[in-house]
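protien #1 (seq + structre)
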Amino acid sequence: MASNSSRDADRYPPDRDTNIGAIATGGGVVNVGRDAVGKKVKIRPHSRPAPASRQEAADVGVLTVLAEESSAVVEVLLRHRGYRSEQLPGGQQVHRATVDTDGGDLRVVAMQTLDPGPRSAAMAYQRMKEEFAPQVILLVGVAGGIRADLAVGDVVIADEVIYYDARRETGSGPRRRGQSQPMAPVLRHRVNEFFRRYGESIALSRREEIRMYRGPIGSGEAVITDALSDIIVFLRTFNEKTLAVETEAGGLGQAFYERIDTEGGVRGWLTIRGISDLADQRKGHDRHRYAADRAALVMDLLLPLLKLGETSQ
């Protein structure tokens, strides 16, 4: 039987370097001119509006939080055609590239949130949507694994986000009220195709691979560094298959949910997380780049599957 130290080594690997007088506007509002009275107007709720700031539109927007996550994503974009970086009027740096797909060019833009946490993630989501009007938004970075079979360097694609901070405080402790946000069906189909093509692991070399998982993750403002935390106990009770915890996806999911019926444009979002720690006392920053690199590699393989066709009604 392997010793505890050897099992720890496996889970904690070392670091490594139309106009006919009627105009359809967002949200299904129709302004009708006199020449259009009595005529039918076709509204396409998922057609993408022009970006508010007249930036060139993108197909996929990528959000990162930490500098290590941003660097890992940029390193991937540098390998694709037409990479360029520019500064938005508010000072935010964005990185753009074009990915070749069977359906044509996929325009990708990436930006970093101002701060960690769900509130900054929600603001960055809104800024991304207004500036570039992507159909898909990805949140790419690191997370803490809470399932026993996960190890540092594994990558999780979340098909559900469980927000764990909603709670009632009592004299005997908090009573948590989980809120769940599932992945949009259009992206669930694309993730299904991804796993059909690649299976549950990607070989990097003869001796190294990236193990990939899909399932729910927990999200909230609390950073967890205790494997016996009541938050972890709650998440395992809420859904025993919960894979990991992080601090941004809950805010991004709520931003998407609250505007889905009022605006066209973004058709879905998902998060890709590399496991950088096991949400215990050994949590630290030394494996962030290692885990972020692996998450970005999985993102790179997924991107060609995210060229979505326009919908009509």
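ok now protien #2
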Amino acid sequence: MTHDLKTERPHKRRLWIALLLAASYLTVEVVAGLWTHSLALLADAGHMLTDVGGLTLALTAIWFSEKPATPELTYGYYRGEILAALANSVVLIVVSIYILLEAYQRFQHPPAVAGGTMLVVAGIGLLVNLASLFVLKGGSQSSLNVKGAYLEVVSDMLSSIGVIIAALVIWRTGWRYADPLVSAGIGLFILPRTWKLMSEAIGVLLEGTPASISLPEVRNALAGIPGVLDVHDLHVWTLTSQVYALSAHCVVADSRLSETLLGRVRKLMHRKFNVSHVTLQVELKPCGDAERHA
């Protein structure tokens, strides 16, 4: 089985465009954040930094996934994408915790912030994030890696909106607490969504059953094939985004069914569950360790 590289090429183009947008704006935002003494701008820059790192990891992962399998790595580098998604989530969680701690310190001693400049820079950031979202949205449903980048840009867009609100409050009223308040809200918003992405990546690495597939339904579908008496040692797992594998033992009434059973199972699993890689062991009676497996 080989990964469909044609489906990866559009992801690469999207990721490259988003990376160029994020990297271009990152420098501007860091300089402006330091100049205006705005934690909200620096927090948004921190998120933009994770975007740059995450997009770079995503492109690296796709590059690895295009490399052919070897005798040492029989599935190739599919899991590079999942490792990149896991790294993205870890970095984003660390950045969010830092923002929360820094916001707490600023609640104690809020510095003066240049609200007008902060507003202009945040407005530009919002436009950059909207452009990146438009570019990445098409691949966010089919690739966990692109989904991770998309979620990061979503968080950046929301943080840009928060920074704009804080800048307006500071500019019009001079209330300095708006800056750390918005920063804390950004950090709290990002954590649960990043945790979900991390959980998905860990689930793939642990070879858990994909969330979109019901193992009892798979078992019933296999058991419903004429001539199949029992199904055991059933496993379904994810190799990389949208690439699923299945292995199972099927007990049959007639050994002659083994010649046609694999073809039937492959067609059924691909049509009904989008499973593209099937390994099947055909038996005339259950093997002795069947009770240890699903």
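Strands lie at 228-240, 243-252, 275-283.
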